[in-house]
Amino acid sequence: MKIYIHTDLEGISGIGKMEMIDRAGPDFQEAVSLMMGDINAAVEGAFEGGAKEVTVLDSHGGGGNFDMGALDKRAVTDPKENKKWWGMLDESYCGTFFIGAHAMAGTINGFLDHTQSSKTWFNYIVNGRRMGELAQWAIVAGHFGVPMLMVSGDEAACAEARQFFGNIECVPVKQGLGRNRAMLYDPGECRQKIRLAAARAVSMSDKARPFKPLLPMEIKLELYRSDYCDSIAAREGVERLDARTVRKIAATGLDLFM
Predict the structure, then answer these.
(1) Distant-in-sequence, close-in-space partners of 230: CB < 8 Å, separation ≥ 6
(2) Structural domain of 161
(3) Tens of pLDDT, residues 58-87
(4) Can you give the pLDDT of all 258 residues of the chain as single tens digits?
(5) Same-domain status, 187 and 225
(6) Contact 94, 3 (CB under 8 A)
(7) In this structure, how many other beta carbons lie within 10 angstroms of the beta carbon of residue 46?
(8) Which candidate, 69, 193, 68, places its Cα nearest to that of 78?
(9) Same domain, 144 and 165
């Protein structure tokens, strides 16, 4: 039984201000330490729930965030040597977790809410439904028949996860106060909850179903400004609908981006 853990930074316990995720800032190493704590709790719980192998993907900002010396030694890190953003994920996994999730762009009181790019992306829409990075990852996993089993993040991210995936294991670790600040829950208690939720999620994985939108998918991307559309609209298979909106038809769940 194999589990694949996708990670992000904004939804990690103990991170309550935007400045903490600035790689050049004085608080970034603290943020990394907090992230490793949440990840290790999920890894521990996955093994307790019956997993025989756990793979972890360092995904925030394209990677390069992990403190490898602090990662649970039982975990396998995904080097993404195949250059595909979903890395080693394939049909051999029985489920995936999303640790450190944030809500989609435009979510009220979503801590650091965004979808891919907080500077350029405004709305990302699949088959008429607005989606964020949680649903994007679930679609990729669903392509391989892998269900989303567990999510940790702020309250808004957990609410979003339940809207998309139903009765999923969720661990809220903070409450957004507007976009750039959050009221934190105790990180130690959060990690304990993450461990327990991970164990429950793995033990119930045979009852979960992958998230699969109807194919082919219609994907619309609304950007903040018309000039952000210019280069995207010139790509093969992309249609420009108006000054800020592009559209394409995707044949598979792996073809999520323009």
Answers:
(1) none
(2) 2-117+132-211
(3) 999 888 899 999 999 999 999 877 768 788
(4) 999 999 999 999 999 999 999 999 999 999 999 999 999 999 999 999 999 999 999 999 888 899 999 999 999 999 877 768 788 999 999 999 999 999 999 999 999 999 999 999 999 999 999 999 999 999 999 999 999 999 999 999 999 999 999 999 999 999 999 999 999 999 999 999 999 999 999 999 999 999 999 999 999 999 999 999 999 999 999 999 999 999 999 999 999 998
(5) no
(6) yes
(7) 32
(8) 68
(9) yes
Does residue 37 sit in the same domain as residue 104? yes
Q: Are residues 81 and 196 in the same domain?
A: yes
Distance CA 79, CA 176 (A): 32
Q: Give the C-alpha separation, 151 to 5, whole Å.
A: 10
Q: CATH number of the domain that 20 lies in? A: 3.40.50.10780
In the sheet with 129-130, reading across from the earlier edge strand, the strands are 129-130, 121-126, 217-223, 245-250, 239-240
Does one domain contain both 202 and 235? no
